[in-house]
């Protein structure tokens, strides 16, 4: 379970997140919002990469303010922008990160990597340098990196960017299955991603959490969640959309 209490993040005079209260359990939770809404900042706070200005974040009973190292052992994070050691092969890079995550038994570690690369259709290129990977391959490699060690909390920031429809569908299926026994936070601007694999969705708008409920509830009375999203923002403090 993740509990966020009165969370605020401010840079000098600019408030990026304002008094966020948010609680989720296991499952796949979508996070929607326009550019500048505060999504990436929110995810970085959950991933222990930023410190809040005020408020609390509690993950599985552990307070990020005092037990950050313990929380990090339980989470995997895919940032929106990331880079790799391009001279390494895909397998070498994953092996390196797996060791950093504490997977020290070589046979178990390699079996784990082989399984993930097979799942994401990358096993055939495991011995190719990352510099020769396509954008979509690198994106899949980034998702695998986040999944190393089988984390209880998986934080994904725009995981399907650059992927074709077939790979998007593959990842939607994998994420839906993974969400049965862990918490996955799936940040995206693509409404189809939310509809494909999320049961619940939250919306950030100009630093405020303006919606947190089921995907069905957002679409209620509309033909799809896109219409529900637009209508909801129009009613939020007179926002123009």
UniProtKB/TrEMBL annotation:
Residues 2-231 form the ABC transporter domain. GO terms for molecular function: ATP binding; ATP hydrolysis activity. Pfam families: ABC_tran. SUPFAM superfamilies: P-loop containing nucleoside triphosphate hydrolases (SSF52540). It comes from the Bacteria. Keywords: ATP-binding, Nucleotide-binding, Transport. InterPro entries: AAA+_ATPase, ABC_transporter-like_ATP-bd, ABC_transporter-like_CS, P-loop_NTPase. Belongs to the ABC transporter superfamily. This is ABC-type multidrug transport system, ATPase component.
């Amino acid at each position: 379970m993740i509990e966020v209490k009165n969370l605020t993040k401010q840079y000098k005079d600019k408030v990026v997140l304002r008094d966020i209260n948010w609680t989720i359990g296991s499952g796949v939770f979508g996070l929607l919002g326009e550019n500048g809404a505060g999504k990436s900042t929110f995810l970085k706070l959950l991933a222990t990469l930023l410190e809040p200005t005020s408020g609390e974040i509690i993950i599985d009973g552990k307070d990020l303010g005092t037990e950050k190292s313990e929380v990090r052992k339980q989470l995997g994070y895919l940032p929106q922008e990331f880079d790799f050691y391009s001279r390494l092969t895909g397998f070498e890079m994953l092996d390196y990160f797996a060791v950093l995550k504490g997977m020290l038994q070589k046979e178990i570690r390699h079996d784990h990597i082989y399984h993930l690369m097979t799942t994401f259709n990358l096993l055939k290129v495991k011995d190719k340098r990352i510099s020769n990977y396509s954008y979509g391959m690198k994106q899949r490699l980034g998702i695998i990196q986040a999944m190393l060690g089988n984390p209880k909390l998986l934080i994904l920031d725009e995981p399907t960017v650059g992927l074709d429809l077939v790979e998007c569908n593959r990842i939607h299926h994998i994420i839906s299955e993974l969400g049965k026994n862990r918490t996955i936070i799936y940040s995206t601007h693509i409404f189809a991603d939310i509809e494909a694999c999320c049961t619940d969705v939250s919306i950030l708008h100009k630093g405020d959490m303006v919606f947190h409920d089921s995907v069905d509830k957002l679409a209620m009375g509309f033909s799809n969640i896109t219409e529900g999203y637009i209508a909801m923002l129009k009613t939020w403090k007179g926002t123009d959309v």
